Amino acid sequence: MLARSGKQASRLQSYNNAMDDIYKTYPHNPPHYFVPNAMYIVTGSLLYNKRLLIDEKRKSLVCDILLERARHWGWALEAWSVLENHYHFIGQAPENALTLETLILQFHSKSAVELNRLDKTLGRKVWHNYWDTCITHETSYHARLHYVHLNPVKHGLAENAEEYPFCSYSWFLEKADVSFQNTVMNQPIDRVDIYDDFD
To answer: How far apart are CA 148 and CA 144, in angstroms?
Structure first.
């Protein structure tokens, strides 16, 4: 489900008004906020930044599992990119935002099993970690959508993101209102602060 301008402000404002948000920290891992119905950007990386997703079959497998697990846990994705050694997605949390932990755990586990089956490397650790940020401002939301849609171009995997089948850009062009497309794609991304040091 793509956000529309009338709903964006109220959804992002819900973050600022949330009284029941949960902040969790973990040893040796990034901290995580969990806010009901808030918008998040999530980045995950493969262990040692290895380029395991080297062909269409592996990228498709990871992309399909990500989308399926997101639907299962009620996360409405609005952008995604699966690259050779990492991924990004933007999605709206359900009422129980704590499900992000389970979504990622299952996504990483299921995709690791399938990748190891393909590579005949039973038990290999595949994923390293993930980072999530709760998006609190409308311009930040637009810039991050723009950034994630075009991430394959940034990493040199496509000249045109519309032709890259493992990101959301062609879906976005098909589903989003033209005015919303223009708002997003005209938002500058040169100052977007997203962990993306995977080259």
So the answer is: 6
Within a domain: residue 168?
yes
* 196 inside domain: no
Residue 190 lies in a domain: no
Query: What's the Cα-to-Cα distance from 47 to each of 15, 127, 145, rounded to whole Å?
Result: 32, 5, 25
Beta bridge partners of residue 11, listed in sequence order: none
Stated pTM of the model:
0.84
CATH of the domain at 122: 3.30.70.1290
What is the bridge-based pairing of β-strands 29-34 and 86-92? unpaired
Q: Are strands 22-26 and 76-82 parallel, antiparallel or unpaired?
A: unpaired
On whether residue 35 sits in a domain, the answer given is yes
pLDDT profile of the chain (199 residues), mean per 10:
50 45 47 82 96 97 98 98 98 96 97 97 95 93 97 96 97 97 95 80
SS3 assignment, position 167: strand
Comparing CA positions, the residue from 41, 50, 53 lying closest to residue 168 is: 41
**Structural domain for 19, as ranges:** 5-185
- Work out how many domains the chain is built from and give that number: 1
Q: Which strand (E) or helix (H) includes residue 15?
A: helix 5-17
